[in-house]
Amino acid sequence: MKQFKKVLVANRGEIAIRVFRALNELGIVTVSIYSKEDRYALFRSKADESYPLNPDKGPIDAYLDIDTIIKIALNAGVDAIHPGYGFLSENPEFVDACEQNGITFIGPSSDIMRAMGDKISSKQIAIAADVPIIPGVDHAMKSYEEAAKIADMVGYPIMLKASNGGGGRGMRIVNDPADLEKEFNEARNESKKAFGDDMIFVEKYLKGPKHIEVQVIGDNYGNVVHLFDRDCSVQRRHQKVVEYAPAFTIPDETREKIFDAAIRLCKNVGYVNAGTLEFLVDRDNNPYFIEMNPRIQVEHTVSEMVTGIDIVQAQIMVAEGYALDSEEIHIKSQEDVTCNGYSIQTRVTSEDPANNFLPDTGEMTVYRSGSGNGIRLDGGCAYVGAVVSPHYDSLLVKIISHDRTFAGAVRKSERALQEMRIRGVKTNIPFLINVLNHPTFQSGQCYTTFIEETPELFR
Ligand code: ADP
Known about the structure:
The active site is at 295. Catalyzes a 2-step reaction, involving the ATP-dependent carboxylation of the covalently attached biotin in the first step and the transfer of the carboxyl group to pyruvate in the second. This is Pyruvate carboxylase. By secondary structure, this protein is an alpha+beta fold. The protein is built from 14 helices and 22 strands. The strands form 6 sheets. Strands 13-12-9-10-11-14-21-19 form an 8-stranded antiparallel β-sheet, sandwiched between helices. It has a 5-stranded parallel β-sheet with strand order 3-2-1-4-5, with helices on both faces. It has a 3-stranded antiparallel β-sheet with strand order 7-6-8. The N and C termini lie far apart (55 Å). Adenosine-5'-diphosphate is lined by residues 134, 159, 165-168, 171, 203, 205-206, 209, 211, 235, 238, 278, 280, 290-291, 448.
Protein backbone atom coordinates (compact mmCIF):
# COMPACT_ATOMS: atom_id res chain seq x y z
CA MET A 1 0.00 0.00 0.00
CA LYS A 2 1.26 3.45 -0.86
CA GLN A 3 -0.59 5.63 1.71
CA PHE A 4 -0.63 9.02 -0.01
CA LYS A 5 0.32 12.02 2.16
CA LYS A 6 -0.11 14.74 -0.45
CA VAL A 7 -2.05 14.81 -3.72
CA LEU A 8 -2.23 17.40 -6.51
CA VAL A 9 -5.44 17.94 -8.44
CA ALA A 10 -4.70 18.82 -12.05
CA ASN A 11 -8.00 20.55 -12.61
CA ARG A 12 -10.13 23.53 -11.63
CA GLY A 13 -13.62 24.54 -10.50
CA GLU A 14 -16.17 22.20 -9.02
CA ILE A 15 -14.37 18.92 -9.70
CA ALA A 16 -11.16 20.23 -8.08
CA ILE A 17 -13.16 21.05 -4.94
CA ARG A 18 -14.94 17.68 -5.10
CA VAL A 19 -11.59 15.88 -5.08
CA PHE A 20 -10.10 18.12 -2.34
CA ARG A 21 -13.05 17.20 -0.13
CA ALA A 22 -12.47 13.48 -0.67
CA LEU A 23 -8.76 13.94 0.09
CA ASN A 24 -9.53 15.99 3.22
CA GLU A 25 -11.69 13.23 4.59
CA LEU A 26 -8.87 10.76 4.01
CA GLY A 27 -6.42 13.04 5.85
CA ILE A 28 -4.37 13.76 2.74
CA VAL A 29 -2.79 17.19 2.11
CA THR A 30 -4.20 18.89 -1.01
CA VAL A 31 -2.41 20.85 -3.73
CA SER A 32 -4.08 23.00 -6.37
CA ILE A 33 -2.73 24.51 -9.56
CA TYR A 34 -4.31 27.49 -11.30
CA SER A 35 -4.07 29.51 -14.48
CA LYS A 36 -3.54 33.26 -14.47
CA GLU A 37 -7.23 33.65 -15.35
CA ASP A 38 -8.17 31.60 -12.26
CA ARG A 39 -6.03 33.53 -9.80
CA TYR A 40 -9.09 34.73 -7.87
CA ALA A 41 -11.11 31.51 -8.25
CA LEU A 42 -12.46 29.86 -5.12
CA PHE A 43 -11.11 26.35 -5.75
CA ARG A 44 -7.56 27.64 -5.20
CA SER A 45 -8.24 28.56 -1.62
CA LYS A 46 -9.90 25.23 -0.89
CA ALA A 47 -6.53 23.47 -1.18
CA ASP A 48 -3.81 23.42 1.47
CA GLU A 49 -1.24 24.60 -1.06
CA SER A 50 -1.72 26.33 -4.38
CA TYR A 51 0.70 27.03 -7.23
CA PRO A 52 0.43 29.11 -10.42
CA LEU A 53 0.70 27.51 -13.83
CA ASN A 54 2.53 29.17 -16.72
CA PRO A 55 0.83 32.58 -17.13
CA ASP A 56 1.84 32.82 -20.78
CA LYS A 57 0.03 29.67 -21.85
CA GLY A 58 -3.53 30.97 -21.90
CA PRO A 59 -6.53 29.82 -19.85
CA ILE A 60 -6.94 26.31 -21.29
CA ASP A 61 -3.41 25.42 -22.35
CA ALA A 62 -2.11 26.24 -18.87
CA TYR A 63 -4.03 23.19 -17.60
CA LEU A 64 -2.70 21.04 -20.46
CA ASP A 65 0.93 21.93 -19.79
CA ILE A 66 2.31 18.57 -18.67
CA ASP A 67 5.87 19.80 -18.04
CA THR A 68 4.85 22.60 -15.70
CA ILE A 69 2.37 20.41 -13.84
CA ILE A 70 4.96 17.69 -13.26
CA LYS A 71 7.50 20.29 -12.10
CA ILE A 72 5.03 21.73 -9.59
CA ALA A 73 4.14 18.22 -8.42
CA LEU A 74 7.80 17.31 -7.86
CA ASN A 75 8.60 20.58 -6.08
CA ALA A 76 5.59 20.19 -3.82
CA GLY A 77 6.54 16.56 -3.13
CA VAL A 78 3.18 15.02 -3.98
CA ASP A 79 2.62 11.26 -4.07
CA ALA A 80 -0.13 11.30 -6.65
CA ILE A 81 -2.13 13.38 -9.12
CA HIS A 82 -5.90 13.28 -9.61
CA PRO A 83 -6.85 14.55 -13.08
CA GLY A 84 -10.58 15.25 -12.58
CA TYR A 85 -12.50 15.28 -15.89
CA GLY A 86 -11.63 17.06 -19.13
CA PHE A 87 -8.14 18.60 -19.53
CA LEU A 88 -5.49 15.84 -19.11
CA SER A 89 -7.82 13.21 -17.66
CA GLU A 90 -7.73 11.01 -20.77
CA ASN A 91 -4.20 11.76 -21.91
CA PRO A 92 -1.95 8.65 -21.80
CA GLU A 93 1.19 10.81 -22.18
CA PHE A 94 0.31 12.56 -18.96
CA VAL A 95 -0.11 9.18 -17.25
CA ASP A 96 3.34 8.15 -18.51
CA ALA A 97 4.89 11.44 -17.42
CA CYS A 98 3.50 10.95 -13.91
CA GLU A 99 4.75 7.38 -13.64
CA GLN A 100 8.19 8.25 -15.05
CA ASN A 101 8.57 10.83 -12.30
CA GLY A 102 7.52 8.49 -9.54
CA ILE A 103 4.08 10.07 -9.13
CA THR A 104 0.99 7.84 -9.05
CA PHE A 105 -1.70 8.78 -11.54
CA ILE A 106 -5.14 8.29 -9.98
CA GLY A 107 -6.82 6.48 -12.86
CA PRO A 108 -6.17 3.59 -15.22
CA SER A 109 -2.78 2.83 -16.78
CA SER A 110 -1.68 4.54 -19.98
CA ASP A 111 -2.08 1.24 -21.86
CA ILE A 112 -5.73 0.97 -20.92
CA MET A 113 -6.23 4.63 -21.68
CA ARG A 114 -4.71 4.20 -25.11
CA ALA A 115 -6.86 1.17 -25.77
CA MET A 116 -10.02 3.01 -24.69
CA GLY A 117 -8.91 6.42 -25.81
CA ASP A 118 -10.89 6.82 -28.98
CA LYS A 119 -14.27 5.64 -30.10
CA ILE A 120 -12.90 3.25 -32.74
CA SER A 121 -10.51 1.41 -30.46
CA SER A 122 -13.11 1.12 -27.73
CA LYS A 123 -15.49 -0.40 -30.30
CA GLN A 124 -12.84 -3.01 -31.12
CA ILE A 125 -12.47 -3.82 -27.45
CA ALA A 126 -16.23 -4.19 -27.14
CA ILE A 127 -16.33 -6.60 -30.08
CA ALA A 128 -13.57 -8.66 -28.48
CA ALA A 129 -15.62 -8.89 -25.28
CA ASP A 130 -18.77 -9.84 -27.18
CA VAL A 131 -20.49 -6.58 -26.23
CA PRO A 132 -23.03 -5.33 -28.80
CA ILE A 133 -22.17 -2.15 -30.72
CA ILE A 134 -24.22 -0.01 -33.11
CA PRO A 135 -24.10 -1.44 -36.66
CA GLY A 136 -21.38 0.30 -38.66
CA VAL A 137 -17.61 0.01 -39.00
CA ASP A 138 -14.88 -0.53 -36.47
CA HIS A 139 -12.11 1.27 -38.34
CA ALA A 140 -11.38 4.71 -39.75
CA MET A 141 -12.59 5.07 -43.31
CA LYS A 142 -10.17 5.97 -46.03
CA SER A 143 -12.60 7.17 -48.66
CA TYR A 144 -16.08 8.40 -49.32
CA GLU A 145 -16.74 5.28 -51.41
CA GLU A 146 -16.08 3.08 -48.40
CA ALA A 147 -18.38 5.22 -46.26
CA ALA A 148 -21.11 4.98 -48.90
CA LYS A 149 -20.85 1.20 -48.96
CA ILE A 150 -21.21 0.91 -45.20
CA ALA A 151 -24.02 3.48 -45.11
CA ASP A 152 -25.98 1.50 -47.73
CA MET A 153 -25.40 -1.64 -45.73
CA VAL A 154 -26.66 -0.28 -42.37
CA GLY A 155 -29.34 1.92 -43.97
CA TYR A 156 -29.99 5.64 -43.66
CA PRO A 157 -30.07 7.77 -41.56
CA ILE A 158 -26.48 7.25 -40.50
CA MET A 159 -24.10 9.10 -38.26
CA LEU A 160 -20.60 10.18 -39.20
CA LYS A 161 -18.45 10.29 -36.10
CA ALA A 162 -14.96 11.55 -35.39
CA SER A 163 -13.13 8.83 -33.49
CA ASN A 164 -11.58 11.42 -31.19
CA GLY A 165 -14.66 13.61 -30.86
CA GLY A 166 -16.03 14.46 -27.45
CA GLY A 167 -18.38 16.74 -25.58
CA GLY A 168 -21.06 16.22 -28.19
CA ARG A 169 -18.85 17.53 -30.98
CA GLY A 170 -17.68 15.73 -34.10
CA MET A 171 -20.98 14.03 -35.00
CA ARG A 172 -23.12 14.50 -38.11
CA ILE A 173 -26.42 12.92 -39.04
CA VAL A 174 -26.83 12.10 -42.74
CA ASN A 175 -30.37 11.36 -43.92
CA ASP A 176 -29.90 11.36 -47.66
CA PRO A 177 -27.25 9.41 -49.63
CA ALA A 178 -26.90 12.43 -51.94
CA ASP A 179 -25.42 14.43 -49.03
CA LEU A 180 -22.92 11.81 -47.92
CA GLU A 181 -19.93 12.86 -50.01
CA LYS A 182 -20.10 16.49 -48.93
CA GLU A 183 -20.73 15.60 -45.28
CA PHE A 184 -17.95 13.01 -45.29
CA ASN A 185 -15.38 15.47 -46.59
CA GLU A 186 -16.49 18.19 -44.23
CA ALA A 187 -16.46 15.80 -41.27
CA ARG A 188 -12.90 14.73 -42.05
CA ASN A 189 -11.66 18.31 -42.34
CA GLU A 190 -13.46 19.33 -39.20
CA SER A 191 -12.07 16.38 -37.25
CA LYS A 192 -8.54 17.16 -38.37
CA LYS A 193 -8.89 20.75 -37.16
CA ALA A 194 -10.75 20.06 -33.94
CA PHE A 195 -9.33 16.70 -32.81
CA GLY A 196 -5.98 16.47 -34.54
CA ASP A 197 -6.70 13.57 -36.94
CA ASP A 198 -9.19 12.67 -39.64
CA MET A 199 -10.35 9.30 -38.31
CA ILE A 200 -14.03 9.15 -39.24
CA PHE A 201 -16.40 6.19 -39.06
CA VAL A 202 -20.02 5.46 -39.92
CA GLU A 203 -22.67 3.97 -37.69
CA LYS A 204 -26.41 3.67 -37.91
CA TYR A 205 -28.25 6.66 -36.48
CA LEU A 206 -30.67 5.44 -33.83
CA LYS A 207 -33.85 7.50 -33.74
CA GLY A 208 -34.34 8.97 -30.27
CA PRO A 209 -32.61 6.30 -28.14
CA LYS A 210 -32.04 6.46 -24.42
CA HIS A 211 -28.51 7.16 -23.15
CA ILE A 212 -27.80 4.74 -20.32
CA GLU A 213 -24.42 4.41 -18.65
CA VAL A 214 -22.89 2.17 -16.02
CA GLN A 215 -20.47 3.29 -13.33
CA VAL A 216 -17.74 0.74 -12.69
CA ILE A 217 -14.78 0.49 -10.39
CA GLY A 218 -11.96 -2.03 -10.57
CA ASP A 219 -8.93 -2.69 -8.39
CA ASN A 220 -5.40 -3.94 -9.15
CA TYR A 221 -6.35 -7.54 -8.32
CA GLY A 222 -8.87 -8.22 -11.07
CA ASN A 223 -12.00 -7.31 -9.10
CA VAL A 224 -14.59 -5.14 -10.84
CA VAL A 225 -18.01 -4.07 -9.61
CA HIS A 226 -20.69 -1.87 -11.12
CA LEU A 227 -22.45 0.86 -9.18
CA PHE A 228 -25.69 0.55 -11.17
CA ASP A 229 -26.77 2.78 -14.01
CA ARG A 230 -27.59 6.38 -14.85
CA ASP A 231 -30.11 7.69 -17.34
CA CYS A 232 -28.56 10.65 -19.17
CA SER A 233 -31.10 10.94 -21.96
CA VAL A 234 -32.00 14.56 -21.23
CA GLN A 235 -29.51 16.18 -23.57
CA ARG A 236 -29.13 19.34 -25.60
CA ARG A 237 -27.01 19.03 -28.71
CA HIS A 238 -25.74 15.64 -27.54
CA GLN A 239 -24.67 17.10 -24.19
CA LYS A 240 -26.15 16.02 -20.88
CA VAL A 241 -28.35 18.46 -18.97
CA VAL A 242 -30.12 16.34 -16.31
CA GLU A 243 -29.01 12.89 -15.14
CA TYR A 244 -30.49 10.43 -12.71
CA ALA A 245 -29.90 7.07 -11.09
CA PRO A 246 -31.03 4.37 -11.41
CA ALA A 247 -32.30 4.00 -15.00
CA PHE A 248 -35.60 2.76 -13.64
CA THR A 249 -37.68 2.84 -16.84
CA ILE A 250 -35.41 0.44 -18.71
CA PRO A 251 -36.65 -3.18 -18.35
CA ASP A 252 -34.64 -5.15 -15.80
CA GLU A 253 -33.67 -7.68 -18.43
CA THR A 254 -31.98 -4.96 -20.51
CA ARG A 255 -30.33 -3.45 -17.46
CA GLU A 256 -28.90 -6.83 -16.49
CA LYS A 257 -27.54 -7.23 -20.02
CA ILE A 258 -25.85 -3.83 -19.74
CA PHE A 259 -24.34 -4.60 -16.31
CA ASP A 260 -23.05 -7.97 -17.53
CA ALA A 261 -21.58 -6.40 -20.68
CA ALA A 262 -19.88 -3.66 -18.64
CA ILE A 263 -18.28 -6.10 -16.21
CA ARG A 264 -17.25 -8.46 -19.01
CA LEU A 265 -15.60 -5.68 -20.99
CA CYS A 266 -13.74 -4.37 -17.93
CA LYS A 267 -12.52 -7.81 -16.92
CA ASN A 268 -11.44 -8.47 -20.47
CA VAL A 269 -9.17 -5.41 -20.57
CA GLY A 270 -8.13 -5.61 -16.91
CA TYR A 271 -9.70 -2.26 -16.16
CA VAL A 272 -8.48 -0.53 -12.99
CA ASN A 273 -10.00 2.47 -11.17
CA ALA A 274 -13.33 4.24 -11.83
CA GLY A 275 -14.81 4.37 -15.30
CA THR A 276 -18.08 4.68 -17.15
CA LEU A 277 -19.41 2.60 -20.01
CA GLU A 278 -21.93 4.42 -22.15
CA PHE A 279 -24.73 2.66 -24.03
CA LEU A 280 -27.58 3.72 -26.28
CA VAL A 281 -30.79 1.74 -25.88
CA ASP A 282 -33.14 1.69 -28.87
CA ARG A 283 -36.95 1.69 -28.77
CA ASP A 284 -36.97 -2.12 -28.72
CA ASN A 285 -34.75 -2.05 -25.63
CA ASN A 286 -31.65 -3.33 -27.39
CA PRO A 287 -28.52 -1.90 -25.75
CA TYR A 288 -25.47 -0.86 -27.79
CA PHE A 289 -22.13 0.14 -26.28
CA ILE A 290 -20.86 3.51 -27.62
CA GLU A 291 -17.80 4.40 -25.58
CA MET A 292 -15.98 4.15 -22.29
CA ASN A 293 -14.76 7.13 -20.29
CA PRO A 294 -11.72 6.10 -18.22
CA ARG A 295 -12.15 8.85 -15.62
CA ILE A 296 -14.57 10.39 -13.14
CA GLN A 297 -17.63 11.93 -14.80
CA VAL A 298 -19.63 15.06 -14.00
CA GLU A 299 -22.65 12.94 -13.08
CA HIS A 300 -20.86 10.44 -10.80
CA THR A 301 -22.70 12.12 -7.92
CA VAL A 302 -26.06 10.44 -8.54
CA SER A 303 -24.46 6.99 -8.32
CA GLU A 304 -22.84 8.01 -5.04
CA MET A 305 -26.20 9.05 -3.64
CA VAL A 306 -27.98 5.78 -4.44
CA THR A 307 -25.14 3.44 -3.51
CA GLY A 308 -23.60 5.39 -0.62
CA ILE A 309 -20.15 4.78 -2.10
CA ASP A 310 -17.78 7.75 -2.37
CA ILE A 311 -16.42 7.09 -5.85
CA VAL A 312 -13.62 9.65 -5.63
CA GLN A 313 -12.35 8.20 -2.36
CA ALA A 314 -12.55 4.74 -3.88
CA GLN A 315 -10.45 6.00 -6.82
CA ILE A 316 -7.81 7.33 -4.45
CA MET A 317 -7.66 4.15 -2.38
CA VAL A 318 -7.53 1.89 -5.45
CA ALA A 319 -4.55 3.96 -6.62
CA GLU A 320 -2.96 3.48 -3.19
CA GLY A 321 -3.21 -0.24 -3.82
CA TYR A 322 -6.19 -1.27 -1.70
CA ALA A 323 -8.44 -4.05 -2.93
CA LEU A 324 -12.14 -3.33 -3.31
CA ASP A 325 -12.92 -5.73 -0.48
CA SER A 326 -10.34 -4.22 1.89
CA GLU A 327 -11.57 -2.65 5.15
CA GLU A 328 -10.70 0.76 3.68
CA ILE A 329 -12.75 0.62 0.47
CA HIS A 330 -15.26 -1.81 1.93
CA ILE A 331 -16.97 -3.08 -1.20
CA LYS A 332 -17.04 -6.75 -0.27
CA SER A 333 -18.70 -8.02 -3.44
CA GLN A 334 -21.14 -7.02 -6.18
CA GLU A 335 -23.99 -8.07 -3.87
CA ASP A 336 -22.62 -5.64 -1.30
CA VAL A 337 -23.43 -2.73 -3.66
CA THR A 338 -27.07 -1.81 -3.19
CA CYS A 339 -29.19 0.82 -4.87
CA ASN A 340 -31.31 2.85 -2.48
CA GLY A 341 -33.85 5.34 -3.75
CA TYR A 342 -33.41 7.79 -6.59
CA SER A 343 -31.05 10.66 -7.26
CA ILE A 344 -31.26 13.45 -9.83
CA GLN A 345 -28.54 15.90 -10.84
CA THR A 346 -29.35 19.19 -12.55
CA ARG A 347 -26.47 21.22 -13.96
CA VAL A 348 -26.95 24.93 -13.21
CA THR A 349 -25.02 26.87 -15.84
CA SER A 350 -24.54 30.53 -16.72
CA GLU A 351 -26.34 29.99 -20.01
CA ASP A 352 -29.27 32.07 -21.15
CA PRO A 353 -32.14 29.84 -22.34
CA ALA A 354 -33.87 32.90 -23.83
CA ASN A 355 -30.83 33.56 -26.00
CA ASN A 356 -30.07 30.17 -27.52
CA PHE A 357 -28.17 29.13 -24.37
CA LEU A 358 -25.39 31.60 -25.02
CA PRO A 359 -22.97 31.57 -22.07
CA ASP A 360 -23.36 34.71 -19.98
CA THR A 361 -20.45 36.27 -18.11
CA GLY A 362 -19.99 38.86 -15.38
CA GLU A 363 -19.95 39.24 -11.62
CA MET A 364 -22.43 37.42 -9.47
CA THR A 365 -24.14 39.99 -7.27
CA VAL A 366 -26.55 37.68 -5.45
CA TYR A 367 -26.15 34.01 -4.60
CA ARG A 368 -28.53 32.14 -2.39
CA SER A 369 -28.30 28.36 -2.46
CA GLY A 370 -31.09 25.85 -2.37
CA SER A 371 -30.42 23.28 0.36
CA GLY A 372 -32.23 21.26 3.00
CA ASN A 373 -33.29 17.65 3.30
CA GLY A 374 -32.10 15.44 0.45
CA ILE A 375 -30.09 18.10 -1.39
CA ARG A 376 -26.37 18.04 -2.11
CA LEU A 377 -24.60 20.89 -3.90
CA ASP A 378 -21.30 20.35 -5.71
CA GLY A 379 -20.01 23.71 -6.80
CA GLY A 380 -17.27 26.19 -6.43
CA CYS A 381 -18.05 28.79 -9.01
CA ALA A 382 -21.18 30.29 -7.46
CA TYR A 383 -20.86 32.88 -4.66
CA VAL A 384 -21.36 36.62 -4.29
CA GLY A 385 -18.50 38.35 -6.06
CA ALA A 386 -17.62 35.36 -8.25
CA VAL A 387 -16.60 36.43 -11.72
CA VAL A 388 -17.97 34.12 -14.39
CA SER A 389 -15.38 34.29 -17.12
CA PRO A 390 -15.73 33.35 -20.77
CA HIS A 391 -12.63 31.13 -20.61
CA TYR A 392 -14.12 27.97 -19.11
CA ASP A 393 -17.26 25.88 -19.28
CA SER A 394 -20.38 27.49 -17.89
CA LEU A 395 -21.15 25.03 -15.06
CA LEU A 396 -21.86 26.98 -11.85
CA VAL A 397 -23.16 24.36 -9.46
CA LYS A 398 -24.65 20.88 -9.58
CA ILE A 399 -27.80 20.29 -7.55
CA ILE A 400 -28.15 16.64 -6.57
CA SER A 401 -31.30 15.38 -4.88
CA HIS A 402 -31.96 12.05 -3.18
CA ASP A 403 -35.27 10.55 -2.17
CA ARG A 404 -36.96 7.18 -1.66
CA THR A 405 -39.06 7.73 -4.78
CA PHE A 406 -38.34 9.28 -8.16
CA ALA A 407 -41.30 11.65 -7.73
CA GLY A 408 -39.85 12.75 -4.39
CA ALA A 409 -36.42 13.36 -5.93
CA VAL A 410 -38.07 15.45 -8.68
CA ARG A 411 -39.87 17.52 -6.04
CA LYS A 412 -36.68 18.06 -4.03
CA SER A 413 -34.71 19.11 -7.10
CA GLU A 414 -37.44 21.49 -8.19
CA ARG A 415 -37.76 22.98 -4.73
CA ALA A 416 -33.99 23.54 -4.47
CA LEU A 417 -33.94 25.21 -7.90
CA GLN A 418 -36.83 27.45 -6.83
CA GLU A 419 -34.92 28.44 -3.68
CA MET A 420 -31.75 29.25 -5.56
CA ARG A 421 -31.19 32.92 -6.39
CA ILE A 422 -28.47 34.02 -8.76
CA ARG A 423 -28.23 37.60 -9.98
CA GLY A 424 -25.60 39.27 -12.12
CA VAL A 425 -25.40 36.44 -14.66
CA LYS A 426 -28.24 34.75 -16.46
CA THR A 427 -28.73 31.06 -15.69
CA ASN A 428 -30.62 28.07 -17.05
CA ILE A 429 -32.58 27.64 -13.77
CA PRO A 430 -36.02 28.42 -15.32
CA PHE A 431 -35.30 25.91 -18.08
CA LEU A 432 -34.30 23.19 -15.61
CA ILE A 433 -37.50 23.78 -13.63
CA ASN A 434 -39.51 23.35 -16.84
CA VAL A 435 -37.74 20.03 -17.52
CA LEU A 436 -38.46 18.74 -14.00
CA ASN A 437 -42.10 19.78 -14.22
CA HIS A 438 -42.67 18.10 -17.57
CA PRO A 439 -44.82 14.94 -17.41
CA THR A 440 -42.50 13.12 -19.83
CA PHE A 441 -39.55 13.71 -17.52
CA GLN A 442 -41.59 12.73 -14.48
CA SER A 443 -42.56 9.45 -16.12
CA GLY A 444 -38.89 8.65 -16.87
CA GLN A 445 -39.69 8.39 -20.57
CA CYS A 446 -37.29 10.99 -21.97
CA TYR A 447 -35.27 10.07 -25.03
CA THR A 448 -32.22 11.96 -26.30
CA THR A 449 -34.49 13.99 -28.59
CA PHE A 450 -36.73 15.18 -25.70
CA ILE A 451 -35.41 18.74 -25.46
CA GLU A 452 -35.39 19.44 -29.19
CA GLU A 453 -38.90 18.03 -29.54
CA THR A 454 -40.38 19.94 -26.59
CA PRO A 455 -40.62 23.68 -27.35
CA GLU A 456 -42.62 24.42 -24.20
CA LEU A 457 -39.47 23.86 -22.12
CA PHE A 458 -38.12 27.13 -23.47
CA ARG A 459 -40.99 29.25 -22.17
P1 ADP B 1 -19.32 12.37 -26.94
O1 ADP B 1 -18.06 11.60 -26.75
O2 ADP B 1 -19.15 13.60 -27.77
O3 ADP B 1 -20.07 12.62 -25.66
P2 ADP B 1 -21.02 10.08 -27.53
O4 ADP B 1 -20.56 9.02 -28.46
O5 ADP B 1 -20.94 9.79 -26.07
O6 ADP B 1 -20.26 11.44 -27.85
O7 ADP B 1 -22.50 10.46 -27.91
C1 ADP B 1 -23.14 11.57 -27.31
C2 ADP B 1 -24.63 11.53 -27.64
O8 ADP B 1 -24.83 11.60 -29.06
C3 ADP B 1 -25.34 10.26 -27.23
O9 ADP B 1 -25.71 10.28 -25.87
C4 ADP B 1 -26.54 10.29 -28.16
O10 ADP B 1 -27.51 11.19 -27.72
C5 ADP B 1 -25.94 10.82 -29.44
N1 ADP B 1 -25.51 9.70 -30.33
C6 ADP B 1 -24.28 9.20 -30.48
N2 ADP B 1 -24.26 8.20 -31.37
C7 ADP B 1 -25.52 8.05 -31.84
C8 ADP B 1 -26.16 7.19 -32.79
N3 ADP B 1 -25.49 6.27 -33.48
N4 ADP B 1 -27.49 7.34 -32.99
C9 ADP B 1 -28.20 8.28 -32.31
N5 ADP B 1 -27.65 9.13 -31.42
C10 ADP B 1 -26.33 9.02 -31.17
